[in-house]
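ok posting inputs for the magnesium ion job
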Amino acid sequence: MKIQSAKVIVTCPGRNFVTLKLITDQGVYGIGDATLNGRELAVVAYLEEHVIPCLIGMDPRRIEDIWQYFYRGAYWRRGPVTMSAIAAVDTALWDIKAKMAGMPLYDLLGGKSREGVMVYGHANGVDLAETVDEVGRYIDMGYKAIRAQSGVPGLKDAYGVGRGKMYYEPADAALPSLTIWDTHKYLSFVPKLFERLREVYGFEPHLLHDGHHRMTPLEAAGLGKALEPYRLFWLEDATPAENQEAFRLIRQHTTTPLAVGEVFNTIWDCKDLIQNQLIDYIRCTVVRAGGITHLRRIADLAALYQIKTGSHGATDLSPVTMGAALHFDSWVPNFGIQEYMRHTPETDAVFPHAYSFAQGLLYPGETPGHGVDLDEAEAAKYPYKPAYLPVARLEDGTMWNW
Ligand code: GCO
Ligand code: MG
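and the output
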């Protein structure tokens, strides 16, 4: 069996997505997501110029060997561009293998460990009152877990709050727009938000919050401590994690659970955090961390330390990643939660999929493979449009982490 041809499809049904399609000599094809928000065309070139020429003629059944070929064989390891490209190949190959086996991917991975996948949705508002209402709306839709992000008094923009609600999209400009940030104002506000949310909705719904890499370790430790009475499901990206040691300080001061990993690419980015039990949830997902083949190594390492998964699932991860992640989540023994930021109806039309939402859970569906397809005619209606995430500066002009 051989990979006969491959193509990269770029489409922008409201936001850009990059998809790799691998076609075999037996007519079976597989698709993988290669979208890297704001750097999409770098992965397109990596795939078209450096991966596809090597891939043609390879045996698609040899998923592990192909993974090692592109990881070790490139000499230049890791990094978001490389690992997104490897992930796209790997996801497409698992799709092909599961289709050939006539099985939904979760069955090939070892079968279901649970009936459905608990997801968290994004509630956001311009101020405390609007955010409280939004959380209520998610509870009414059946969500068991909700991430709350709010505008902060005295700041024009805050992470997680944008135009639109259900389909809020952070990459919203042809060049990065400028936002102004002040951690002091943010820290004074966040505990009030969660105090109010617990007053209004009680302790039943799981509540989550994303610090989006903006605090220092000590600031994050203080926030974690201040939030303890409101029993968060997790505090995410409390501080940048390039220096994995930084989490030790946060950990020493708070029992608020910590989640990290959406920007990680390999097990090496997670290793010290996991082995030192400095986090509770690992956020790596299929497209960012080298596909199913590598993600399951990360999950297995995490399981040794009772750390659970909590895969990234923002709108910049295409429905292909969502589908593959849901099969992974259905199988993985140490599953924690799955992020679910809904795609627009236009995106759903480009990517017909088997997964579905009911009562706070997502179900991967029973279609052989990962259950997500790409309608090429529909995709062709939406050509690539440059779009970037905003950047952040402090009030005095200092560049900060968005
Ligand atoms: C999340 C993330 C996203 C990222 C986005 C960047 O927790 O969902 O932080 O909102 O900002 O994926 O491309
Ligand atoms: Mg995040």
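notes: Residues 183 and 215 are 7 Å apart (CA to CA). The longest strand covers residues 3-11.
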